[in-house]
Design brief:
300 residues; mainly alpha; Arc Repressor Mutant, subunit A; 3-stranded antiparallel sheet
């Protein structure tokens, strides 16, 4: 999806752009707000981190929410099924069929999803997200709009910052139209994909950046074993991730065990580009959703 297509769907140019966000004088404040809110959602719940925080798993979960919100029960081709998830992910070059089957089974076991035969075709099983999954999604969305509220306090982000279940469905239905834009933005940041493609990778990065920002320094002390316990992975996995990051010029490991990790300029810049793309995407979807909602949700 190109920028011209986004403008056509919105009926005008986006009210914020990647360029606006990257150049905003309060970007560092927005970064801190995003990291704090993100960690509030996942901190202390290593099961949830292991279940959802990895690009392939997360893509399946988000696609399920979006497809469900957009489906028309009268149109079989719109149903949320395992086949529909596999089709979308194949188009985006993400996740194997086996990966999809495994995660759907895990989501059902964890109470995030149900599976039932269609009333019109018993051979087809329709998936559905549960109230537990939707509550998590509302918290996740609020975390991703909080930094936009820091940068643009004159815009109305209340429908997602003050979670509304009805607006959540409208938002996710609208996001279906922009799914390719979201994937394009995600895949455009290879340094961030290093973390997204690793189990608990982004929470580990978020904890590292948070520690550095709180210390007012480019160095952070995050012991591998402690951060591993925090997010449900081993200390060895944390070390492996940060070693890969060092090999990619993103960090410098100065002491054993995570006692001194230097965050290099390229990692700060890559992270800011990544969250800027995410904020751009989320603002576009919110504007479109508010337009779709009519007078009740007119974007300002």
């Amino acid at each position: 999806m190109e920028d011209a297509e986004v403008e056509r769907l919105l009926g005008g140019p986006p009210r914020v752009t990647n360029h606006d966000i990257i150049g905003h004088p309060r970007l560092a404040d927005a970064r801190g707000q995003y990291i704090d809110r993100f960690l509030d959602v996942y901190d202390g719940d290593p099961f949830l981190v292991r279940l959802l925080i990895e690009s392939g798993r997360f893509s399946i979960y988000i696609l399920a929410l979006v497809i469900e919100a957009a489906q028309d029960i009268e149109r079989r081709d719109t149903w949320l099924t395992i086949g529909a998830l596999k089709k979308w992910l194949a188009m985006m070059g993400m996740a194997s069929d086996r990966h999809v089957d495994h995660l759907v089974a895990r989501l059902c076991e964890a109470g995030f999803m149900t599976s039932r035969p269609s009333e019109t075709d018993r051979r087809v099983r329709i998936l559905a997200l549960t109230d537990k999954a939707r509550a998590h999604d509302r918290a996740w969305l609020a975390a991703h709009y909080a930094p936009l509220a820091v940068l643009y306090p004159h815009h109305d982000y209340r429908p997602v910052l003050e979670p509304d279940a009805a607006f959540q469905v409208l938002h996710r239905r609208t996001a279906f139209t922009f799914a390719h834009l979201g994937m394009r933005l995600l895949l455009s940041q290879p340094n961030m994909l290093l973390f997204f493609n690793h189990a608990a990778g982004y929470p580990i990065l978020a904890a590292l950046l948070q520690a550095a920002m709180q210390a007012g320094d480019t160095h952070a002390a995050v012991r591998y074993s402690d951060v591993g316990d925090r997010f449900g992975v081993s200390g060895a996995q944390v070390r492996k991730l940060l070693t890969a990051a060092e090999n990619n010029g993103l960090v410098k490991l100065h002491a054993r065990g995570g006692r001194k990790v230097e965050i290099l300029p390229e990692l700060w810049a890559s992270h800011d580009r990544g969250i800027a793309g995410g904020m751009y995407f989320h603002d576009v979807v919110l504007v479109a959703a508010m337009q779709a909602g009519g007078a009740r949700g007119r974007a300002r």
